[in-house]
Amino acid sequence: MSIREKFTDMLITHCLTTFGRYCMFMRKVCTVPDRWRTFGSRTVFEISKLGVDSIPLVMIISLFIGAVIAIQMQLNINSPLIPSYSVGLATRDIVLLEFSNSILCLILAGKVGSNIASEIGTMRVTEQIDALDIMGVNSANFLVLPKVVAFLFFMPVLVSFCIATSLFGGYAVALFTDIITVSRYTYGLQTMFQEWYVWYGLIKSLFFSFIITTVASYYGYYVKGGALEVGKASTDAVVYSSILILLMDVILTKLLLQ
User: Fold this and answer.
1) Percentage of residues of the chain with pLDDT beyond 90
2) Per-residue pLDDT, 239
């Protein structure tokens, strides 16, 4: 057997093993909570930590990205054959179809995913998770399910903030520069609007939020070693979450926009 074949077999084996372990982990996570009051309080706390604390980052990035998209659209479609309101139309569709869900979740995978992986990983290496297991608590359900539910619940809010702030960024470009007039930009935002694009972005973001929280929790939960391994788990969580988000983006785009 050649080196290439050995490497391929090892890669396939590793992928299947990781996927099987992930499925077993999710089986432990997706069970009925033992105490609903505790689950509710932890979910509210995670909404604040994972969702509300992400709003400033989302708004700052969205504002500048919306402005950059509007500027680039005007510079690249500056032709007498193309109506000037196309800048607003193109900015709106780019934000609704891709930036407010896929690119936003790639950014949140770095912030939220690394936070979850490092938090749970630290609990693992300091034996706090072992203590929960000894007390008869389903540690995976107790720690992970509130994070998953909280981020799923709050993700549409983050997407809405992203859409509004991005479009305002383009509006600010029209307002404070002479690249495009405000009237033409706002007319472009309203031209040929398709409501399904909004729902399409929200649906994708829910899938991506599930990937971010569960993958990050998986890598943090199975950390072995010390602080160095926690950092590696945090990095792995971000990398693999990003890959899965891009893969799911292709699949969902094919299914939802065909």
Assistant:
1) 38
2) 92
